[in-house]
Write a structure and sequence with these properties.
The complex is a heterodimer.
Chain A (H helix, E strand, L loop, with lengths): L1 H16 L10 H22 L4 H25 L2 H28 L2
Chain B lengths: L23 H26 L10 H57 L4 E11 L7 H13 L4 E4 L2 E3 L5 E2 L6 E3 L2 E3 L3 E6 L2 H8 L5 H7 L3 E12 L16
Antiparallel strand pairs in B: 1-7, 1-8, 2-3, 2-7, 4-5, 5-6
The chains are: A mainly alpha, B alpha+beta.
Chain lengths: ~110, ~250
């Protein structure tokens, strides 16, 4: 409940405050957002499975974001930033889909 | 993706100190902060991505690619401009050339029209009157008048109502009516010629020339010099039946 409320509050804050993304953050923000989404979906699934652990969630959230940012950073340095970003998004997207399927099964039994 | 049994977040569970995030409230707070940051990030990213400036969210490589494309496009357009300007210059110069050609053609048309008698002509010249009370003058004698005038440099000649040209012919005379190009003439014959008036006058009155022939026949030749005479008789444009211009 707290997580959902905080998510909504964060979105509203972002819309109200209208911050400009600093230049150095621009390549990483979308990837970081997708990685964090992956962690959130994973956490939601674990919660529904009854094995949710706050510590695991926090660690996975932060590490997901950091690793994704690191991969993009490394890709930019190697000159394959665009391709590596795509790869990260694809992998995370697949994981989100898997988690979403598990969550769906919990809700609809199908 | 079905029933994958891996742990949802793939993060290895390390044994961590239990005091870390021990309390229920503390863990809720951290989770709340993280999701708040996530929501904030989503909103910011969506806003940045949907901004009016579509280029601001692009990567350096993409920007370089776009810049290259724009450069290539600009170069192409510059080449097109140069080409069109060359075409324009070419068309203008050809327009000038065709204008010059038209001018020359018009001048030629005028000169040839005067020589062929297809246009009316005016200029300094003489009027001559040949009387022939005894009808003694032949077509040949009258042709001599034309020949003398031509010899003196007459550029356009009208004999009676007939414009004289390169193919004019006299016939008859000495009793019979004189005809020029099929037109019957009656004395007195009036001749108009354009050229240097003095020279033409002198040519007609040269001793032993046309003047004496006319007088021998009992007629008279009177010549008047004028600053301006007008020849209004014109001929039809002669058509060649067999001849074509050789190129």
């Amino acid at each position: 409940m707290i997580a959902g409320a905080a998510l909504v509050v964060g979105i509203i804050l972002g819309l109200v405050l209208r911050p400009t993304v600093p230049g150095w953050l621009e390549p990483y923000l979308p990837i970081a957002v997708v990685a964090a989404l992956d962690a959130v979906f994973g956490g939601l699934r674990a919660r529904l499975d009854g094995i949710f652990d706050a510590k695991v969630f926090v660690v996975s959230f932060i590490s997901n974001v950091l690793v994704a940012a690191l991969i993009v950073f490394l890709g930019d340095k190697l000159g394959v930033g665009g391709e590596l970003s795509t790869a990260v998004v694809v992998v995370l997207g697949i994981r989100i889909f898997g988690n979403a399927a598990a969550i769906r099964r919990h809700f609809f039994r199908a | 993706m079905n029933d994958d049994d891996e742990k949802p977040t793939e993060t290895p569970e390390r044994p961590a100190p239990r005091r870390w995030l021990a309390g229920r409230h503390a863990s809720s707070a951290v989770i709340g902060v993280l999701t708040l940051i996530l929501g904030f990030g989503i909103a910011v990213q969506v806003r940045a991505n949907s901004g009016s400036d579509a280029l601001s969210g692009l990567r350096e490589d993409d920007l370089i690619g776009i810049l290259d494309n724009q450069d290539a496009r600009a170069e192409r357009l510059r080449q097109q401009i140069a080409e069109q300007q060359r075409n324009l210059a070419q068309l203008q110069s050809s327009g000038d050339r065709s204008a010059a050609a038209r001018k020359q053609a018009a001048e030629e048309q005028t000169a040839l029209g005067i020589l062929l008698g297809t246009v009316a002509a005016t200029g300094p010249g003489i009027t001559a009157t040949v009387t022939d009370p005894k009808s003694q003058l032949s077509g040949e004698d009258l042709l001599d008048v034309i020949e003398e005038l031509r010899g003196a440099g007459a550029e356009a000649i009208q004999f009676g109502p007939v414009r004289i040209s390169t193919d004019s012919a006299f016939s008859g005379g000495a009793g019979a009516p004189v005809t020029v190009d099929g037109t019957t003439l009656t004395a007195p014959y009036r001749v108009i010629a354009i050229g240097d008036p003095k020279t033409l006058d002198t040519a007609l009155n040269i001793p032993g020339g046309v003047g004496s022939t006319v007088r021998t026949a009992g007629g008279a030749l009177t010549v008047g010099e004028h600053k301006t005479v007008t020849i209004s008789a014109i001929r039809a444009l002669p058509k060649t039946k067999y001849t074509k211009p050789a190129r």
